[in-house]
Amino acid sequence: MSTDAHDVLLERFYGPDHPELGSGPLSVEPYISPLYFAREQEQIFRDAWLLACHESEIPEAGDYLVKEIPIFRSSVICVRGTDKRIRAFHNVCKHRGNKVACGEGYGSTKAFFCRFHGWSYALDGRLRGVPESDRFPGLDKRSRGLEPYTMDVWNGFVFLNAARQPAKGLREYLGSLADVLDPYPFSSMAPLSHHSATLRTNWKVGINAFQEAYHVPTVHAVGAPKIFSSRLVAFRFHGAHRAMTLPIAPNFSMFPVHLLSSTLTSGMSQNAIDPSKAGRFPGTNPCNVPNFSFDINVVFPSTFIDVGDGYYFTYEFWPISVNQTHFIFKSYAPPARTWGQRIGQELSVIFLREGVAEDLSTLETTQAGLESGALETMVLSDQEIAIRHQHVMVEKALGQ
Amino acid sequence: MGIDAERASSSVDLTPLEAISDEWAPTSETARRERRATATMSELRAFYDRVGPLVPAIAAHLDTYPIDRLLEPREDRLLRMAQMYMEAAWAVEVVGQPEEADQVPRDRWHITPLLQPACWRKP
């Protein structure tokens, strides 16, 4: 596509094609009302598929990840069994309720032990050992295995659902968004980084900051100046989910360390310098946007799976209360084939960690502003249409 | 080790870097970020100036070792130093100070260590 054609793409308006999303200001009530949050909890999150991890994060038998689901006061273990299958269980001993895996994050074990009285569970959840079991007359060990948590796997991604019997299976829930991403080789890649923060902000304030590029020249003035376009293009709506594409700025410029890293490996900043190293990955850039950087893919209500050529990253927004959210950012890349590539990948880890730390910098002050009563509505540009779509889909799920 | 790789790795003497490896080769992302944040700009710049020109030679040297086995201690220190270089370069080239002001503070931006691939796990 010529530069002129690219300019036309960047100049395009998207709102006129989507009158169903409306065009007026949006109420701030959904971001500050405890009542609204309580309805979201029951009518959205009670039966929603939420990303927990990719199977590549727990590659060996006994590898596990503990996930906290604060709004339902649940702690969940995702664990790979000796049969290589991944299962999810409530992190709760079936004796008197203590946790069987402590802390959040990754671990590797042969079995789970409750530190209270020493009950032990196999990796497939079966109750294996009960100290002084002869003191429990009539104990049926088979009914006292770890309680399964509803889970399903798509393309290697492990999703959890708080409902015992979700209305839709995971693949049906993902719908046409998954059609686009089905061919992406997620399972050939490996985890590169894991960063998280608990923020005093509504979960949707967080989500909104990651589905517009209007903030790029200001929020990323230090960490990524002159790298990305400040306009998203090719917005695609897939039911409640959505996708859009971020181009590299046509006349981008880079720091020397990006150039050094690009001689060693591929990645987000490295691809801008030399896209030939990564090549084209299936499942990316479905609209053939020139100067492609990455696609933003939002799985309703609160998961992002953003894909580039040779790297991808995810965001998870875990609501805690109306104005508290636990945020998790993970990045992935093809496993380094040489140590030199691993050195180059370190720049990717830093570039993403620092850039997302910039994205997070406005969320708490924004929440405070919304709670101050200074404004009843927020006004959105055409470029912020994804925020409007999220708003409409939340309202729809709440029956409004 | 192939002849070309041997030549590439032996063309630059990396031994002098051993002298600064105690200070500049932290072994985790968390420790490297902390090292950067608590160093002065003149320290970061001196490290950056000293190691930067050698990063390609470090990469070429380490590329003579298989990726599916843990490195020997000397080579592991070179790897960590090259990773630390990327942190220092961020401070020197991008931010102009050890840490950026307009970010979520690092004590709230938690780094979770990943599980290693099986081939790197100690028996």
Mean pLDDT of chain A: 95
Major sheet of chain B? none
What is the makeup of the main sheet of chain A? Answer: 7 strands, antiparallel
The main sheet of chain A orders its strands as 12-18-17-16-15-14-13
> What string, H for helix and E for strand, traces the elements of chain B in order?
HHHHHHE
Annotation field: number of helices of chain A: 11
Low-confidence stretches of chain B: none
Structural class of chain B: mainly alpha
Total of DSSP H or I helical runs spanning 4+ residues of chain B: 6
- Helix share bin of chain B: 40-55%
Poorly predicted regions of chain A: none
Largest interface: A-B, 49 and 40 residues
Global morphology of chain A: globular
Fraction of residues in helix of chain A: 25-40%
Number of strands of chain B: 1
Give the radius of gyration of chain A.
22 Å
Distance between the termini of chain B: 25 Å
**Beta strands of chain A, count:** 19
Q: Could you give the order of the helices and strands of chain A?
A: HEHHEEEEEEEEEEHEHHEEHHEEEEHHEH
Oligomer: heterodimer
